[in-house]
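Researcher: If only I could read backbone structure tokens as easily as an amino acid sequence. Walk me, if you will, through where the backbone shape changes along the chain. I have put the entry right below:
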Amino acid sequence: MTAPDENSPPAPVPPSPDQVGGPRIGPDGPRSRHFPPRGGGKSSHFVPRFTLALIAVLAVQLLLIGLDAAFPPDLSKAYRSSPVALDRHGAWLRALPVEQGRWRIRADLERTDPSFVARLVALEDRRFWLHPGVDPISLLRAAASAALHGRIISGASTLTMQTARLLEPRPRTLAAKLFQMARALQLQARFSKRETLSLYLTLAPYGGNLEGVRAASLSYFGHGPETLTPGEQALLIALPQSPEARRPDRRPAAARAARDRVLERMVAARLLSAPDAQEASAEPLPSARQPFPSLAWHAAGELARAAPWDQASVVSTIDADLQRRLEPMAAALAKAQGPDAEVAILVVEAKNRAVRAAVGSAGLSAAAGWMDMTRALRSPGSALKPFIYGLAMDDGIVAPDTQLDDAPQRFADYQPEDFDRIFHGPVTMREALIHSLNVPAVATLERLGPEAFEARLTGAGARLVRPQHETRDAGLALALGGEGISLRDVAMLYAAMADDGLAKPLAWTEAEAAERLTDSGQRLMRPTSARAILDILRDGPPPKGRAPDALTRVTPMAFKTGTSYGFRDAVAIGVAGGYVIAVWTGRADGGARPDMTGRDAALPFLFDVADQVGAQTRAPPPIPPKSPPTALRTLQPVNAGPRLIFPPDGATVVADGYGAASRGFVLAAGGDGLTWYVDGAPVPNDPVSGHPLWKPPGPGFYRLSVVDAEGRTVQAHVRVLGG
């Protein structure tokens, strides 16, 4: 073999097994050249698989979201429900019926007895707060029970599934049950648990045209669901399962049996003691439905209609007690003034513009009683004259003692005359306003400028509307009621005058009233001008037969009347005691009423309303007992044992507080050596009087016992409310 020449190319290197594609043999056996050494294979497989899993999960989620968007639950029935308009203290004013006259009233968990909510959930869906709308544990239990017995023994419906069924009723089939489950998952994805529970308590049927726990509680028990006895709770839990078959007003035996079964379940679930259940079982069933309240019919209905669908309660500024006193007064006045007469009243608290009473008509049975005359555009007559003089004082045109001429005058094509058609010659501005003279007011408006006057009232929030045939600019007839304005806007303007000339909108809810206290408002006139005008209006002569206001009030009422052309409208507005009171009488159709002036037809009524604004709450007179108290029905023989006097068995007492904050109840009984117990705990004696003094720790039902020296006992079951 010859040696290679140094200039010849190098000999080729033999390829390794890896280079020729063959397997390489190592200590761990053959290994492919396409894969990394052992130790990195698991992570290399995990990453793409995890990514694929995430993509799959995301795809499923997108599919579910798409299906949910394409087939959302039908919430139209929930939208077609009514909130409750409440007065400032939470008293029921009015709710609205929905389709076919059904009372579907929105539930308000904040105004529902919490013990009722807890017992409802515990009995109907004890894992309600945990599951996503469908309870898998209940489903497995129901399926196993059905397989074991060959028939359905127990259901698996959750409260969310029942809500889905109430929203979209379907025949009771397996397909319908699966549909409810899907809808329940959708509902729970949209609403919180409390919102879902509120939705169920809004839609639950209670017999007849009653839907929702608020409608049922008010109709059957005469009160809202804020406080419910155990018997009332049991009935409200039992009714939705078979509302028509268990109606207490039509099928009392079935209703009682259903209520007692729920009470037994409460005892078994340790939600109620056996003695309390026995007492609840003795509660009488409602024998008839009670009517729904309809106070402040127009204003409360307006607030209820304006509430968003998810608002259950609207707390208005209305004072139910004042409203309850004024409505029959309006009806009586309308009756006295003729068959077609109507009456409207507004009472506004000046500092926060809260409307404390709003009577829109003389009653729904009166002519056009469904119309809210506080909103109607009517002529104010002379009621805007104080603002003419107040703004003229702002502009330096007049002062209270400026001399004006009350004599025949022509202003271009307009020639006013006084109401009594008698001219008084030279008068001061004060006298012209007190006696509501027309010519001085028109002359002052001419100096002020009717367009400027209209613009300033409009800027303060009032809406002035000219007659249809008047298309030109504002004219001097504006001084005498030549443009229409609502009673609400008149009250708003006078409230501005009562607040040193600062205009703010009227407040119809307590939330709005709180905002008005900090609202900067719109300056209508200077404080000095507003106070001067009110001082002048306080000197007006009172109505016939009425003592001067200075003798009957700490601060006399500042008032002004107005009579429209043709005696169509009679208006009177007053400011007294921090309130603005506006009353209107007339015909809803705008017909004339001869000789019905603001001074004769409206002013006396204004003073009557003012008396009611400052009046205390009128409690009905006590009903004399038809029989003596239980402890005194018969003469007890000597040594007959203790005699219970207060509280008697079955009584309901109202506490002023609970625990140490309460004044407590002095317990009374006849006998010797008496010892009192409440639910087995001794009652201490008051250190001052020495009498047993019981201070309940909270609302609810209590068992009181009194034992005499010989061990004889008498008991009473008492319910405590209030606090």
